[in-house]
Amino acid sequence: MEPGVTPADGSVEGKQWNVVGHTYTPKLHSENAMIWHAIIPDGTGVPPHIHPTQDEWIVMLTGNLEVAFGDKVVKAGPGDTVKMPMGIAHGISNVSGAEATCVFGVAPSRKLFDLFGQLDGVTDPEELVRISAAHEVDFLPPPAE
């Protein structure tokens, strides 16, 4: 990692991705960690999934999110930090009625930077699951009806 500053309006390699309707802007990427700014519109989310090789966290800036760990749902608002340890299933949703902004991070970075590049604009759920599995993110099957 090079020392320095990623400006507020800047990103790693000039990248910005649309992943599941969220805007992800990478702010730091090294072998050891990845950090990205996220804009999460109301009514969007990320279905339950597992990072088997990474710890993940969210630092909330504005708005509110709900994070599901199995049947347990926790709410996070401005200033809160959500901790999602590797191997633990979690899903994220914004049902607050307003946009949320936050900073996500993972350690180590593993294949996530490449995953977001490949998921940019993907809308087909089966394709999203396939691409994610090839990059060490495993989505859980939908609940039985």
Automatic annotation (TrEMBL):
InterPro entries: Cupin_2, Flavonoid_dioxygenase-like, RmlC-like_jellyroll, RmlC_Cupin_sf. Residues 38-102 form the Cupin type-2 domain. SUPFAM superfamilies: RmlC-like cupins. This is Cupin domain-containing protein.
